Amino acid sequence: MADPVISAALASTGARSRSRLLRFEIPEIWMRFLLALLGLVLAFAAALFSTVARESGSLWTTVILASIALTLAVVVGLTTVPYLARRVAGGRVRDAFNYDVTGVGIIYVVSVLLIGVAALNTGNNLLYVIVAAMLAAILVSGVASAIVLRDLELDVRLPEQVFAGRPTLGKIVIRNRRRWLPSFSISVVPLRQKHSRQWQWVPTTFGFPPGQPPATQWVRLPDRQLRRVADGAAAPPGIFTESAYFPYIPAASELAAELELCFPRRGRYQQNSFGLATRFPFAFLTKTRRVALAREILVYPAVEHTDEFFDVLPLITGEFEAFARGRGDDLYLIREYMPEDSARHVDWKATAKSGSLKVREFSREDERRLRLVFDNPSPGSVSEQAYENAVTVAASLGWRFAEGNAELSFVAQGCKAGADIHDFLAYLAIVDPVAAPSLLDSLEISGEYNVILTTCPHVTIPANLWACSYFIFIGPQS
Fold this sequence. Notes:
Layout: H1 4-56, H2 59-86, H3 91-96, E1 99-101, H4 103-122, H5 125-149, E2 152-157, E3 162-163, E4 168-176, E5 183-190, E6 218-220, E7 226-228, E8 244-249, E9 253-261, E10 267-278, E11 285-300, H6 307-325, E12 331-336, H7 348-354, E13 358-362, E14 369-374, H8 384-403, E15 407-412, H9 421-430, E16 449-454, H10 463-466, E17 469-473
Parallel strand pairs: 3-11, 14-15, 14-16, 16-17
Antiparallel strand pairs: 1-11, 2-4, 4-9, 5-8, 5-10, 6-7, 10-11, 12-13
């Protein structure tokens, strides 16, 4: 658990950074506000002059002035209002303005503006009533969506073991803590990751154009530069890419949904926040409530049986079995020769008598012991594809022999002593090439059989390792 003093200090630092940022932007905020007022005044003046032009019988002048009024109102609504709303100081108010306008909502707003311009031009009281009712529907939509998102708790449960390329299931649990009111049409969506600087993050509230993928939207960042969302600082890969939909959540109840997760590469994945979104009741707006819920998952390398794995596994198995059988001194039996048997165990006398190859099998003094050595190469010594193939082979071999109940140990730069198969897979999940001396010069000879993955040339390998080891060379060898 984090130290409360440190947490308070971090929160205070973030608050000071935000206050300094807001203080720097105050002149621009006032400028935006004054420009918005000017645009609305011009729109109102254009609407009044369009009324005068209609009464004088000038049709084209009426159309042009009404179009100018509508255009100015739309420009102010799409640029200045979202900009000012994002910089409101209160967290609750900012949360209330966290919405996206849907396609239906855009059509609805344009219809309201057209009917409003018609009401100004004609002075028809019925049109004023219709505009008021349509504006009230937008207000009701915002209030109702905020109500159904209140008192909802979110929990995300992830599997303990995840392998790259292998589908698995994650669970999203949502609880309604209200005693009487249910919630309708709730979606749990993953939010984009924050940037490295606490105050410089890409908002999800007012992207333009609305309803488009984030990489194609334009937003206003705190550094006062207009850039695409995709041009920001690289964020760590997220865990979830799909959303979970709950059409109805009864009061004082809990619902769960399972989502399929499949990670293409090994590594560390994290999700810092999720969003509870709804279009209830009229689908004019998508109201989103941000939930700070950090989750992290370590994706192990793939343990699928690749062609390279099938090539080396029979050879390793044969050498390992031969080494294990040959460690004892007591003769156990004489049997027929098998393809995986070593030639040094052939019993030539029994072969001469029977006319077929016979081998001696000795009793084992202990269980099968295998040591997997990953001699991590230096950066640039092998290609990225060759390195990833080596990591996959190491993970697959470790997993395969662990399932066969072999007594395993692991050796690698940075891998803790006494690591089990899960610790070794966790090491391989985040390992990268490192500039460190080779392990082969200091590797001690023991009663274990070694499977060694290395980039060292054949001539530099110590001679005593060849008799008790199987080598898998990473990358091309000269």
